[in-house]
Amino acid sequence: MQNSEICGYTTVLVAPEAYFQDELKGFNARVNYEMICTWFANQCALGERIRYKLSLLHSAIEKGTTGYQMIADAAVTRFWAAYWALVQEIAPELQMEEPGQKPAGSTFIYFRGYDLPKGVSLCHTLPHGTIDVQFAGMSEKLSTVQERYAARLPKDMRITRAGKSAVIRSTVPCLSVANDIDVQKHDIIHGIKTAQYMLKWYHQAEYRGPLRHCAVRFCGISNAFQAQRRREEKSLPVSAGKNAPRFAPCLLLKYQITCLTIQFWVGSLALIWAL
Prior knowledge:
By secondary structure, the protein is an alpha+beta fold. Helices cover 47% and strands 13% of the residues. The protein has helices spanning 33-41, 49-66, 74-90, 142-149, 181-206, 210-235, 249-274, and strands spanning 12-15, 29-32, 108-111, 120-125, 130-135, 158-162, 165-171. Helix 1 packs antiparallel against helix 2 (49-66). The chain is elongated and about 85 Å long. The model is unreliable at 209-213, 215-225, 238-242 and 244-248 (pLDDT under 50).
């Protein structure tokens, strides 16, 4: 370095020998953990410190071959189990997956929710004290989310960024997965009910409630059935003539009237639900 300017540099990859099969992968040089172990083993002047350093290196080499090994935390696992039980009691529509063993860093709880579209998720960030409706990859398109939802946003929600996502956020009490569950039970219930409220709000804002969604799905099934019938009729050979199987006109008319009637009443109920 001259005059605070770098004249040159060398990149060195320090990793287990098994990492990338001992290749350089674009680096100028490579030093393997195994080489460092050999060097430390010959440094008798370091005394007892050698054992500690060698144990760290051997542990790193082992992890490099076996991959990530989850270490369960008993307190965190108990917290998640208690949280899940409360969700089943208070708001099963959140569809929280039953948790198994959890490591110490498990502090974000995601809900599947009924019929959340791809790219949209509902999350309780325990240490930060927020319930977020997350829109993946929309951080740079925050204005799009604001245009779509800002006019219908309750006072206790706000639109902001979180990493690469845009989120609709509501604030709740912060929680610690390491603390006693009974002491935090009131705050846990508050968070669950807020998530329940935000899920319902999202569906009303996006779909005008689940009844309208049922109507849309029913219409889709009806249209698919009729399309299949038309395809079957077109596939019949011309030579079949009078012997070709066909839908009786009166039965088809009754079917179509029934579909329209159901769609009308389900749509009416959906409108009442939204209001």
